[in-house]
Amino acid sequence: MAEEKPPNGFVRFLRKVYKPLGFQKGYNALLWLIFGGGFFGFILARLQYLSVGGKFKEGSSPGEWYYLRGGHERVGITLHLVTIIPLGFLLVFQFIPWIRYNALLFHRINGYIIILLLLVSNVGALMIARHSFNGEFETQVWIGLLAIMTTGSVILAYVNIKRLQIDQHRAWMLRTWFYAGCIVTLRIIMITGALVITKTGGFYQAMPCGKISFILRDDPERFRNTYPNCFATNGTLDGWVVAKGLFADDASQIGASFGITFGGAGWLALAIHAIGVEIYLHLTPREANRLRNVSYQRQMEAGFTYPGSSGITSDRWGDADKWKPTSQKEAAHEEKTTTLQTSA
Description:
- The structure is a single chain.
- By secondary structure, the protein is mainly α.
- Helix content is 70%, strand content 3%.
- It is built from 16 helices and two strands.
- The protein has helices spanning 9-18, 26-45, 52-59, 64-68, 71-94, 97-102, 104-128, 137-162, 166-180, 182-200, 209-215, 220-226, 251-283, 285-302, 314-317, 328-340; strands spanning 204-208, 240-244.
- It is elongated and about 80 Å long.
- The two termini are 14 Å apart.
- The model is unreliable at 340-344 (pLDDT under 50).
């Protein structure tokens, strides 16, 4: 059947742009452009942070370098940055269909590299969690949960692809990177939150005098006038005082405003991304079923015992009804279609 004529010239132009990349549906190309492009732009903006003791030191949130300048936390932030930044650059290519169909070896090797980089970056993130954005409890729990979710998801994706369960590999890989992508949304929410609490007022954060002194090291007079308790006998609680959360001209108060909003922003961003990816997966059941039929054919050829369900599937490991292929003939056709999609 001939392809339906596009309704206008703009659509025809868009198809000329995204079809050479292997996308067969415009919404997939649009989602790749929005989320992949957004993540890629975020990574490019932080490429300079590979200079941990230079650009990152200068550009990090006020007070972050106080803890990250030495010890295991310096190792942690270095591990995190030198892995997550290259990961973000390589990740964009994993979701280009043309590469998956025409450069499979690159797709596989790139995938292994990305998985390794993700695991190492998670280790680095956990090493700095104790004091990240002042180390509030909800922040530490969020960092730990994000590490668990991304690590668990990428392991499930790896196990499924080794079992040729392509549909589940797709689902778990999408979950992995949607979870990880919440770090971009987090920044938007955090800065917005800092502006909101500045407007409303009444938000404070406990900070150690040593950290405040480090932040205001170039303005000791402001430090003495704003935080006199740091200089008074018995004026602090274990060396800690209260800083007001204000997105203003005082670097210590800017740091406090980010510390106050970072944890909540992380939880909200993770919830948005976790819900969003499930909505997308539930809206694309035909693609999942197509890939499962392809999985069935490949698992049959590989001699697996449970073709169509050799990976981690709900009918084999849960109480779902046993899955049945549309037909072996149609499954073979789907495999051929997948292989030749972009060659026409």
